[in-house]
């Protein structure tokens, strides 16, 4: 039997290199790929792996590059530019599509193609990294314990320092403002609209509302009508975030966006090797139905290391043919709610009866633009 082949597109970026290292550590031999031939070839020669270079917007070149590839893992951003054309290519070549996207809008665009992908007999699983493997699996576990849950809160914390690509994606998304899911619909909310304390395993921390991929994936994984997502941060940073939020539309003006991108390029380098090796990521989720609550916590390695381990584990499952069905799937739909707990260095705990701490004052909200 011919060995099944997989490809990492965007191998030479910060996260891409970590994914390559994880694959090599497990004795896997992915095809390395990306836009820039020199960068891809240099990394492939260093790793002793095959390589290909092609732009995502050249359909003929992309089709030729993926013709014999069974699974594509897309690491290259911005995903607003790479996701749709590479998914198109995968549907033409019969290649399973996975990505490390965390942009709510782009994840939503992928799920909007659910029927199309299923009709083609394809498989697409977006967000198979830190966004949103731990939170999606944790949400599925707590909701399994509380059928008919009406509300779901999800929060993340831990040691985090963004890579250059992540920082650019954050700047790109900031002008859209905040988001939440209310009555089954995505609605716009102000930046940093809510603040609450989250009882992480390491202690209580202040957390603020942020857009997170679960605002889309939870609609398919658990179907809870009201979902709010949070990130832990110091109160001083929350104040700055709110102040910036009042100027958020300015961030989308092209000259301003160019300046911000240049600042990111010059100042952001990503987490240090020490932080990658010693840092921890924490997630917390709570499902509510009336006055009943089920709470879960997840602990794992630093976010970028977690991303690399989760992504390669997801690829291995697709290559092994264990995906539950075709179509666009969340991680928990594809591999089961227990998937996150099987990743090296990760642990999950689910228990009932914890105090809810739900905010009592609703935030201003308006329907999100289509």
UniProtKB/TrEMBL annotation:
Q: Which PANTHER family match?
A: SACCHAROPINE DEHYDROGENASE
Please give the organism: Streptosporangium becharense
The membrane-spanning stretches of this chain are none
Cited InterPro entries: NAD(P)-bd_dom_sf (IPR036291), Sacchrp_dh_NADP-bd (IPR005097)
Q: What is this protein called?
A: Short subunit dehydrogenase-like uncharacterized protein
**One protein family per Pfam:** Sacchrp_dh_NADP
Saccharopine dehydrogenase NADP binding domain span:
7-104
